[in-house]
Every structure is written in structure tokens, then in C-alpha cells.
Sequence to fold (258 residues):
Amino acid sequence: DWPPTDHFATTFPDMFKVFQDCLVAPWLTYRDGILNLESSMPKHSCPKGYLAQGAADNATTFFHCDIADAVNIMFNAGRAADGSEGGALWTMVARDDMARAEELLRERKSWDDNDGHPVHAQRLDITGDDVAFLREQGLHVWTFVQRAGEAVFIPAGVGHQVKNLSSCIKVAVDFVAPCNVLHSQKIGRQLREHRLAVKERSSDDVLQLEMMCWWYYRRSQSDLRDVRRDPASNPWTCEFSAAPRYLSTSVPPSGARK
Fold:
């Protein structure tokens, strides 16, 4: 991570502005975004730069899942060893399949239970054969290459691994979306159990999810009370609703909306 301890915004203000300008969905992804629950807490979460060379064999970032949502933007990628366009190979496992993935990988990789949780220990390298095996078991696993100028969104609890195919410069930032709070809470409990299992006593609860939700609620009763509400923004009542047909919706006919 770069910078290791200092805030990205204060150390590299010009780069921080460029990064902010590249973010989509600013209400969620900006650190002061109105839908980012972290906006109600002290500014401890900030972008981090990731500068790494291409990985010859193993993953650059081993398989794991995070307690918060994140967006990762690649700003530069060198050429691959064969001269082709560089980038980073991502492997992602659907959040709903993570419990099953843990069971399968624990057995397939002969995981030692003394090392705690196989995913949260961040030591597993998911190979192409592993991906094929998980798919054969019915799990949803995606692989894709991130190129320069592309952003990857990683929801809380989604398993992912990154292998740089060339030297890459990426910048990422965490955020907490209201719709993923329960998933963040679940991952937080798992991380605590893992740290207790491996006797890692020094780790702090950096996210402080419960306090974050409380202060966001308090803000919603004051600062956010007067935020304009647009009926057309409600997917369940808007005449342009994109809600799946199998869900019960209350969509008025065109022109009948009050």
C-alpha cells in the first residue's frame, strides 16, 4: 500500500483530485458521499496506491474477501513479458457461494485448521484448475483482465484474487454501501473468529461498523432530513422501473403517476 501510513489526499493532493475525478457513483464512492456510511466517521479511510510488478507464478494479491466495498482503478499497465497489452487477472467468487467455496478449498488445498480461516488468512492461490473445479461444483466464478483505464468494483464479502500480468499502478478506495451492511457485519464476525483462532490479538476494529451505522442514522435525522426525494428514483414505483418481472411491484400506468 502506498503511502503506508500517511493519507493519500494530503501526501499526493494532485493525484487525489485525479482519482476523485475518475470515480463514478460519487454519492457512494466519495469519502464524503451522502450514501457512503463512512462519511459519518473520522476520515480514516482514504485511497491507497498499489504499485507492483508482474507476477511470474503466484498471485499478486491472494484470495480473500473484504469487510467493506471497494473500487479499484488501474491507471497504468506496462507491456506483458510477451509484448502484449498488460493488465491484471482477477478471479472473483460470488458472495452467495463463498461458504461453499471455503469448504471445497479447505479440502482441496489440504488446509491446516491451525492457520485459521482459509480465506481470511489470505494465503490461498487460486489457479486455473481451481477455477474449473469450483465451476464444476456449481459455484459462480468469474475471471477477467483489468486493463489501464478500467475500474473494478468489489462488493463486501465477494471473494477475489489479483495476479498482475505486467507491472501495474492502481489506486483503490473503500466505502460502505447501506445495502451491504449485513454482509460487512458477517465478514467482521468471521475476521474476529479468525484472529482469535491464530491468536492475533493486536488487530483493531478499524471499520467500527455498528458505530458507523449509528452516526449515519443520527445524521439522517438532521443533516440528511431535507435531501430532495424524487419519486422517479424509486424502482418500485417509477413508471420506468427496471425491477425483475418476477418481483411484485406497484408500477402505475404511464401518465397515472401522482
The radius of gyration is 21 Å.
